[in-house]
Amino acid sequence: MDNVTQEDIQQLEARLDIVEARQERIEARLDAIEARLDRLEKLYGVNSVPHNTMVIYWSEKDQCYFVRVPDLRDHIANWNALAYGYSYEEAAQNGSKSIELAKLIK
After folding, report:
1. How many Å apart are CA 26 and CA 20, to the nearest integer?
2. What are the CA-CA distances from residue 46 to residues 21, 39, 103 (Å)?
3. Which three-class secondary structure state does DSSP give residue 58?
4. pLDDT reported for residue 86
5. Deepest of 55, 71, 95, 105, by most Cβ within 10 A of its Cβ?
6. Residues 69-95: tens digit of each pLDDT
7. Secondary structure (3-state) at 25
């Protein structure tokens, strides 16, 4: 410990600043998520936000993401793909829309 220089201390302080900044960004994201959940709970009623698991996977052959929803397996003729998208986010959005449509035709 005797060999610690002022430069070593400055480097550690710089790393600590980076870690603290990341932590602040993560906390801000969590706050935003919690606020969104609060809005959804108010919209749908406390603890009644519908939940469905989406399995999103990349198809190298088709160069896009496909979406499956295990909960809707018995209600969908083409179980291989409920939705797709060329980005992960697009696939997730299309999957959410498909879930809502599938619920309407159950």
Report:
1. 10
2. 33, 10, 20
3. strand
4. 95
5. 95
6. 877 766 665 555 678 999 999 999 998
7. helix
Alpha carbon dihedral 55, 106, 90, 51, in 10-degree steps, equals -60
Joined tokens for residue 11: 């480097």
In this prediction, residue 99 carries a pLDDT of 82
- Domain ranges in the chain are 1-49, 55-105
How would you classify residue 45: left for phi > 0, otherwise alpha for psi between -120 and 50, otherwise beta? left
Contacts of 50 by beta carbon, 8 Å cutoff, 6+ apart: 44, 103
Q: Alpha-carbon distance 58 to 15, whole Å?
A: 36
